[in-house]
Design goal:
It is a single chain. The chain is 62% helix and 14% strand. The chain is built from 8 helices and 4 strands.
Length: 181
Amino acid sequence: MIDDTIVSHWSNAFFQLAQEEKKVKQYSNEAGILIDLFTKYPEFLDVVSSSVLSFSEKSKIIKTTFDKFSRYMINFFLLLTQEGYFRYSLLILKEFRRLCNEYQGIQYGVVYSVVELSARQIKKLEQKISSIISKTVELVNKIDQSLIAGVKVKVKNQVFDGSVKGQIEQIKSSLEKNNQE
């Protein structure tokens, strides 16, 4: 069972440290890398959270695995491990990153497409959507074969649908509305 209090407490504590150190952007970037890593390899969280390994062994694993990250990130993981909360790392990092994004005025979203978009295409979409919602937008590309063609962008509660499927649904809705009149 997930304890939201633990996630909130630890993410807020690390966020306060990032603010004090004036490294919100750096730690947020590191958190993004780690979120991707823990999402791709969730078994790593299980290994380090295991009761079979001693704290000393877990400490070695953390220091070796994350030696390219800031010392505060490493120390943060060591504290989580020592307190028995390392299994919450992914959730804590996600909440921490959300706090950082809010602080920096960054809004995350998803651009759905039939094929993978290039970095240049994503950057153009980010700029366009940023100008529409008056916030800095960063997008992640996810493949959705049901779109037929085009893209659909979702940022928080807003959806910008430029897909063929979306256009077909709009036409269908319009025709149904006209038939009811």
